[in-house]
UniProtKB/TrEMBL annotation:
This is DUF998 domain-containing protein. The keyword Thylakoid does not apply. The chain crosses the membrane at residues 9-32, 52-73, 93-115, 130-154, 166-188, 200-218. It comes from the Bacteria. Keywords: Membrane, Transmembrane, Transmembrane helix. The keyword Zinc does not apply. It comes from Sporichthya brevicatena.
Length: 244
C-alpha cells in the first residue's frame, strides 16, 4: 500500500465519525431518546419523524463503509510493529470487522421499525429497543480493538517506534471508558441507561477523541514509513552505483 493510498484512507476515520453522528442527528437522537419510553411514545416518535429516522438509519449503515477502511489502515500500521507475528494486528482487524456488524445491524433494525410505523406499537418499541441496545451496549469489539492496539504499541521495541508509547496507554484507558456500555441491559433510567452519562455521553466523547488521536498518530506513522521507504530506496541506488 503506497503512502498516497494510505493518506487517502486516513480520512476515512473523520468521515466515519461525521456520517455516523450525522445519522444520529438526522434521526433526532442527540440527545438519545429516554430508555424508559412507553410503547406508544416510541411509536409516536417513529410516526412523527419517519423520514428522519429512515435517513438516519441509512447514514448510520453507510458509515460502516468508512469504518472498514479505517480498521484496515490501523492494522496496516500495526503490522509494522509485529512483523511476521501479527497477533494483535489480526485481533484488531477481526474486532474492527465485528464492529462493522455492530453498526450495520442497528441501522437495519432502525430502518425496519421506521419502514412500517403504523404497525402495533409494541413491535415498533421492541425493534427500537433492540437497535439501541445493540448500538450502545455491544462495546466488546471496540474494547478488544483498543486493548489489541495498546498491547501492540507497548510491545514495540524498535529504536524508532511506529507509535509513541503514551498512545498504547491511552488505548487501554479508552477501553476502560467503554466498559459500562454492555451493562445498559440492567437499567432503564440513570447514568447506566442507554442515554446515560456513563454509557452514552462519556463513551461518545471518548469515541470522538479516539478518532482524533488516531488520526494524528496514524498520519505521523504513514509519513515515517514513507521516509523509511525513501531511505531504503536511496540506499539501494547507492549500492547499485557502487557495484556498477
Amino acid at each position: 500500500m503506497t503512502p498516497g493510498i494510505q493518506r487517502a484512507c486516513l480520512w476515512s476515520g473523520p468521515i466515519f465519525v461525521a456520517v455516523f453522528f450525522g445519522g444520529i442527528l438526522a434521526a433526532g437522537w442527540l440527545p438519545p431518546p429516554e430508555a424508559n419510553m412507553s410503547a406508544d411514545e416510541v411509536a409516536d416518535m417513529y410516526r412523527s419523524n419517519t423520514d428522519g429516522i429512515r435517513t438516519g438509519a441509512v447514514l448510520i449503515g453507510m458509515s460502516s463503509f468508512f469504518q472498514g477502511i479505517w480498521a484496515a489502515l490501523m492494522s496496516r500500521q500495526l503490522r509494522r510493529i509485529e512483523g511476521d507475528r501479527p497477533l494483535f494486528t489480526y485481533t484488531q482487524l477481526a474486532a474492527g470487522g465485528i464492529g462493522i456488524i455492530v453498526v450495520i445491524i442497528p441501522a437495519f433494525v432502525f430502518a425496519t421499525a421506521a419502514y412500517t410505523p403504523e404497525r402495533d406499537p409494541e413491535i415498533t418499541a421492541a425493534l427500537h429497543n433492540l437497535a439501541f441496545l445493540c448500538l450502545v451496549g455491544v462495546g466488546w469489539p471496540a474494547i478488544l480493538q483498543c486493548v489489541s492496539v495498546g498491547m501492540a504499541v507497548l510491545g514495540d521495541r524498535r529504536e524508532n517506534p511506529v507509535f509513541p508509547r503514551w498512545f498504547g496507554y491511552a488505548n487501554l484507558w479508552i477501553a476502560f471508558a467503554f466498559l459500562p456500555g454492555p451493562f445498559i441491559v440492567y437499567f432503564h433510567t440513570g447514568a447506566f441507561a442507554w442515554n446515560g452519562f456513563a454509557t452514552f455521553w462519556i463513551p461518545a466523547n471518548v469515541f470522538g477523541a479516539f478518532f482524533a488521536m488516531w488520526f494524528v498518530v496514524l498520519r505521523r506513522a504513514i509519513e515515517s514509513e514513507a521516509a523509511e521507504d525513501a531511505m531504503a530506496e536511496l540506499s539501494d541506488v547507492e549500492l547499485q552505483v557502487q557495484r556498477g
